Each structure stands twice: as C-alpha cells, then as structure tokens.
C-alpha cells in the first residue's frame, strides 16, 4: 500500500516524499482510513510504530476538507503525558500542515514554563497539543474554549494514567461537547485503558499492531559484569574506545543522571542529563543538540525517554537497569529501528544478576556476560 491510496492530498503526499516517508507503517495503513471516516478508534501500538503520523495526517485532511475558519476555539485537542511528547507531536503537525492551503495553526502547551506567553499565542490556534494540568490552568484562566472540540486524541494514554492524570482527564472530558470524534492511542491494553475506552469511545474500531518480534534481533546486545564503583570508568572507556558519536544512556533517577553528567564532563566527554527537574529550555536544548548529532551523550530517565524518538540511533546504554523487563525492551528498542542495526549495552553489578536473568527470560533472549574485571581500562 502507498500513501496515495489513503485519501491524502497531493500536498501531504509531497511532504511525505520529501521527508523520506516511503510507505505507510501498519498503524498508518489501518488508522488513517478510520479517522478519515470520522469514526472512533482504539489503537494499541508501541512508541516508534509511526502512530503520530497515523493521526496527524487524517486529522489535518479532515480539517482541510471542512474548511475550518480561524478563530479562538479549539477544533482538535491532543492530550499527552509529557512536555517532550507535546513538543514532538506539535512538530509533526507543523511539518505537514505548513504545505496545506489555509494552514491550520497548531500549538503545544505544557507546565514548567510561564503560562502568559502560551495564553497570548493561543489566538488562531485550531489544533492544541496539551498536557492535562496546563490545559486545565488555561481553561480556568478563560484563555481557551473547549466547547468547539470536534476531535479528541489521547496519545500514550497508558502512560498518562500511570502518571496519575486520571482526575485531570475526567475533568477535561466534562468540558468537552458530547458529540465528537475520539481517538485513543496506547502502548498497552490494561484495565485502566479499558475503563477509559468504555467512558469516551463510541462504538470504536479497534486496531492492534503487534510489536515485531524480529525487531530485537536487529540489536546487538552486550552486557558487562562490573562493580558499582567501576561503572563510570567502564562507560568512559566504551565511549572512547568505540568512538561513540551518539549514545543514549539510561539511569534510574534524576540524581544518578546529574552525577553521571558531572563525571563524564569532568573526564572530557561532552554529555547532558535530561529529566523532570531540569528546566524546559534545558531539556529542549539537550534533545535538539543530541538529535542533530552535536551532543554525543544524552543521559535520560525512563519517563523523559518517551519524548526521544530518533530513527537511526547507534548506541543505547543501560547504566542502571530498569525495574521491569518491558521497560528494558522499550529502552533498547530506541536503537535498531527502521531496519537499521544498533547496539545495546548493559552494565550489570553483582546485585543486578538475578534481575537481569529475569529480564532475559521475559525477553526470551540470552545475552553474553563479559566480565569487566578481565578488561584493562
């Protein structure tokens, strides 16, 4: 199937081709026609499956064909769990909307920054990408009206509920018109998502894209047995000896992230930590530099990693193991995308050995353990 068969305008098809979107991903093939027809959708698809374009493209086409007039009312509302994801989704809207005649204005709003500039810039916005808390603040300040929303999209709904946004989501739903199109995107289908589905979706079509089992086979996995105090020197050795130009390092806490950044910089390796306690500008700057290849090492927690989407990422390092096997697979899946190979490196302390065995068992793949004690660094 090609994008030309999905009832997308020649303008969008041109932009797709210019940005190397060669053919639709499975989620795009199935979701775009459903959304174009104005039906409700429950889509279960992993991060990195192409789901953002799966709703951006048909939503823009529907607005374009409806010839929505520019006013102060929101026609499309996208709820997301994090600032990073809000920025990322808005970038995709901007990418494709700029080539459409009568371009629809989109905007991302989120907490952690001053609300006043966001209030000022809302004029003329018809597509709003928002985190729940900031959206409620803007509504309470009478900066936006939500009674004209025709399409509601919940992106990464499972993450949003896991982060404790259920109350805010319920509050927002009460502000929206009853008649609207609802699109629910989630990486998993659990009890909480089922409840939300039953609450907001009207006779939805369900699309479930199973993660490709062979995706993980594109990733070369390496594990090093290492004493806790030797993890820093080992990481520095690997970065320098393998000439890593772009490596995403995962840690389990903001404290670990800051400490590791300090150690790497002190030893002549350019690195930046990004986490929830960093300012918005700091996070945006670090991610922009990393994506552009100007920053060789980005240190991140699992929460922040949801907004990091790089098609060709050569290295991922688990400096500290995540708590769940699913998070481990999500981490290493940041590399080995788009049919390209990648390498995932994990540092395993003696206390981590049992947990790493559990991860491997769940992953159904065994990783050779190299003892760093036998290495010189």
Written description of the protein model:
By secondary structure, this protein is α/β, with parallel strands linked by helices. The protein folds into 2 domains: 3-208, Rossmann fold (3-Layer(aba) Sandwich); 214-374, 3-Layer(aba) Sandwich (Rossmann fold), CATH 3.40.50.300. 40% of the residues lie in helices and 18% in strands. It has 15 helices and 14 strands. The chain has helices at residues 10-18, 26-36, 51-66, 83-97, 115-121, 132-140, 157-162, 166-173, 191-200, 231-241, 254-266, 280-292, 302-305, 325-332, 353-363; strands at residues 41-44, 76-79, 105-109, 125-130, 151-154, 181-186, 205-208, 219-225, 247-250, 271-274, 297-300, 315-318, 342-348, 369-371. The strands form 2 sheets. A 7-stranded parallel sheet has the order 3-4-2-5-6-1-7, sandwiched between helices. Strands 10-11-9-12-13-8-14 form a 7-stranded parallel sheet. Helix 2 (26-36) runs parallel beside helix 3 and helix 6 packs across helix 8 (166-173). It is globular, with a radius of gyration of 22 Å. The N and C termini lie far apart (51 Å). The model has no long low-confidence stretch (mean pLDDT 88).
Q: Which short descriptors sum up this protein?
A:
377 residues; alpha/beta; Rossmann fold; 2 domains; 7-stranded parallel sheet
List the helices and strands and how they pair.
Elements: H1 10-18, H2 26-36, E1 41-44, H3 51-66, E2 76-79, H4 83-97, E3 105-109, H5 115-121, E4 125-130, H6 132-140, E5 151-154, H7 157-162, H8 166-173, E6 181-186, H9 191-200, E7 205-208, E8 219-225, H10 231-241, E9 247-250, H11 254-266, E10 271-274, H12 280-292, E11 297-300, H13 302-305, E12 315-318, H14 325-332, E13 342-348, H15 353-363, E14 369-371
Parallel strand pairs: 1-6, 1-7, 2-4, 2-5, 3-4, 5-6, 8-13, 8-14, 9-11, 9-12, 10-11, 12-13
């Amino acid at each position: 199937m090609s994008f030309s068969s999905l009832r997308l305008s020649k303008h969008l098809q041109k932009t797709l081709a210019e940005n190397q979107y060669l053919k639709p991903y499975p989620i795009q093939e199935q979701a775009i026609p459903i959304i174009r027809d104005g039906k409700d959708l429950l889509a279960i698809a992993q991060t990195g499956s192409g789901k953002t374009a799966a709703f951006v493209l048909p939503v823009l086409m529907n607005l374009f064909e409806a010839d929505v007039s520019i006013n102060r009312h929101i026609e499309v509302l996208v709820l997301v769990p994090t600032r990073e994801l809000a920025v990322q989704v808005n970038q995709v809207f901007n990418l494709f909307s700029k080539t459409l005649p009568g371009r629809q204005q989109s905007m991302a709003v989120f907490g952690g920054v001053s609300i006043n500039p966001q209030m000022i810039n809302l004029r003329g916005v018809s597509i709003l990408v928002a985190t729940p808390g900031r959206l409620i603040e803007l509504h309470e300040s009478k900066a936006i009206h939500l009674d004209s929303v025709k399409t509601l999209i919940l992106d990464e709904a499972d993450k949003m509920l896991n982060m404790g946004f259920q109350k805010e989501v319920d509050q927002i739903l009460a502000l929206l018109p009853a008649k609207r199109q609802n699109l629910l995107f989630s990486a998993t289908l659990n009890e909480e998502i089922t409840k939300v589905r039953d609450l907001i979706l009207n006779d939805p079509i369900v699309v479930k894209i199973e993660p490709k089992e062979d995706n993980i086979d594109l990733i070369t996995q390496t594990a090093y047995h290492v004493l806790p105090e030797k993890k820093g020197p080992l990481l520095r050795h690997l970065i320098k000896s393998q000439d890593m130009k772009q490596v995403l390092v995962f840690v389990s806490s903001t404290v670990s992230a800051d400490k590791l950044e300090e150690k790497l910089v002190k030893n002549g390796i350019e690195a930046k930590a990004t986490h929830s306690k960093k300012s918005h500008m700091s996070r945006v700057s670090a991610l922009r530099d990393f994506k552009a290849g100007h920053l060789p090492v980005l240190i991140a927690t699992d929460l922040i990693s949801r907004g990091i989407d790089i098609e060709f990422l050569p290295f991922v390092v688990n400096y500290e193991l995540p708590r769940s096997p699913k998070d481990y697979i999500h981490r290493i899946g940041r590399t080995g995308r788009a049919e390209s190979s990648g390498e995932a490196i994990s540092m395993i302390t003696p206390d981590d050995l049992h947990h790493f065995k559990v991860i491997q068992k769940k992953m159904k793949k065994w990783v050779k353990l190299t003892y760093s004690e036998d290495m010189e660094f």
